[in-house]
Design a protein that fits this description.
Elements (H helix, E strand, L loop, with lengths): L16 E5 L2 E4 L4 E4 L2 H4 L8 H13 L11 H11 L8 E5 L2 H16 L3 E5 L8 H5 L5 H4 L9 E4 L4 H4 L3 H18 L6 E6 L2 E2 L5 E2 L4 H12 L2 E5 L23 E4 L10 E5 L1 H5 L14 H16 L2 H22 L4 E5 L5 E5 L8 H14 L1 E2 L1 E3 L5 E4 L7 H20 L1
Parallel strand pairs: 3-15, 5-6, 5-7, 7-10, 10-11
Antiparallel strand pairs: 1-2, 2-3, 4-12, 8-9, 11-12, 13-14, 14-17, 16-17
The structure holds pyridoxal-5'-phosphate.
Length: 420
């Protein structure tokens, strides 16, 4: 009997990738594709960066699986120390897992045990993962939740400051969303029963929406006042993606827990949560673990990833190339003012939002543009509840010439997609 892959696996392109190098993927016929998806924001150092490949080869020849609740291995100790240099003062304790969703679950367990409270607050448009708690905290699209409800209870949803959608000023948006947050605390989950607030500093799956200035500070202040754990989900935004090492660093607020994955290890499954030793110690013994978490080869890849980020100045590069890409995309948007309603986002985490003649989300056009781009040789992904936001997540090693090449393909794809 010939087996086949599950039909439930949704694939957004028809590409069979056999090789990757830098910003490009190659199919079996040798056709090159500019990969501005970076495997959903993972391969920030590009595909198969020679330093990552070398570190992985070396580690695979020494030790692949040093199971960390049985033995410790030096790569994880080294990685812990190296990551410490990128954490804020006081956040000095790390727990490693594999996927982003597992790290979110670990943060939920910690927030609940540390506070002896049950409830969680998330934001409209959030994506935190597909496992039990993380799925209940995910509100970016019904497709993730449909057929699985009722989900874990005790999760409350507050409005995210989606300025473009509301059509208000930044200040009005911030004030409204903070007022609604307070209203939620007054009407649905009292501070005394709220364990944690989880937020993406830039909404990922929810549509590539950065928080407005002052919003994170407002939330952090309320968390401090009420003894609620403030967790930043930096799974998609971390490791320099937004032009700062962590996206929360665009403002003043410092989270109690930082949740990380994706860009951490250039494609190897690794995730982590970071918190102060004081907070981490309030979790219950034995509540963190797992067979594969902190795998030696993944840890070696993560150390090499940090080497590359530091040596090649990738954080600053994301900021400067982000400005370049935003400029290029604004030019295209100016050519289609009634089809591309907004270009936004910090660093190399940029959204182009497609709208119809009435200014409403236009997922069909975005889909047609994505297909046309693929035929041109450019891979991009959609996001947002209506699939109308095309997101730009090139590797942080991308060159300005590659960005220009990609935007050229995008311009042709928009022409085709909007005339279809
Ligand atoms: C912000 C955020 N949190 C959590 C996750 C879940 O990560 P994973 O798919 O590795 O479980 C994702 C994945 O896209 C994400 O973008």
């Amino acid at each position: 009997m010939l087996a086949s892959l599950s039909p439930l696996l949704n694939q957004s392109t028809d590409v069979l990738a056999v090789r990757g190098e830098g910003s490009r993927l190659f199919d079996a016929e040798g056709r090159a594709y500019l990969d501005f998806t970076s495997g959903i924001g993972v391969t920030s150092t590009g595909h198969c960066h020679p330093k990552i490949v070398e570190a992985v080869r070396r580690q695979a020849g020494q030790l692949i699986h040093g199971q960390v609740t049985t033995v410790m291995h030096p790569r994880l100790l080294e990685l812990t120390e190296r990551l410490g240099a990128h954490l804020p003062d006081g956040i000095d304790s790390l727990f490693f897992a594999n996927a982003g969703t597992e790290a979110v679950e670990a943060a939920v367990r910690l927030a609940r045990q540390a506070t002896s409270r049950t409830n969680l607050i998330v934001f409209q448009g959030s994506f935190h993962g597909r496992t039990t708690a993380a799925l209940a905290m995910t509100t970016s699209k019904t497709a993730y939740r449909a057929g699985l409800q009722p989900l874990m209870s005790g999760v409350f949803v507050a409005p995210f400051p989606t300025q473009y959608r509301y059509g208000w000023s930044e200040d009005e948006t911030t004030a409204f969303c903070l007022r609604e947050f307070d209203h939620l605390l007054a009407t649905q989950t009292s501070p005394q029963e709220t364990a944690g607030v989880f937020i993406e500093p830039v909404l990922g799956e929810g549509g590539y929406v950065p928080v407005t200035a002052g919003f994170l500070e407002g939330i952090a202040e309320r968390c401090r006042r009420h003894g609620i754990v403030f967790a930043a989900d930096e799974v998609q935004t971390g490791f320099g993606r937004t032009g700062r090492f962590w996206a929360y660093e665009h403002g003043e607020a410092v989270p109690d827990i930082i949740i990380m994955a994706k860009g951490i290890a250039s494609g190897f499954p690794l995730s982590a949560i970071a918190a102060s030793t004081e907070l981490m110690s309030k979790g219950w013994p034995g509540s963190q673990g797992g067979t594969y978490g902190g795998n030696a080869v993944a840890a070696a890849a993560a150390i090499a990833t940090l080497d590359v980020i530091e040596e090649e100045g990738l954080v600053a590069r994301a900021a400067s190339l982000g400005a370049v890409l935003t400029g290029m995309l604004n030019e295209v948007a100016d050519e289609y003012p009634d089809r591309i309603g907004d270009v936004r986002g910090p660093g190399l985490m940029i959204a182009t939002e497609f709208i119809d003649a009435n200014g409403q989300p236009d997922g069909a056009t975005a889909k047609a543009v994505l297909k046309a781009a693929e035929h041109e040789g450019l891979l991009l992904l959609a996001c947002g509840a209506y699939g109308n936001v095309i997101r730009w997540i090139p590797p942080l090693v991308v060159t300005e010439a590659e960005l220009a090449e990609g935007v050229g393909m995008f311009r042709r794809a928009v022409k085709q997609g909007t005339s279809a």
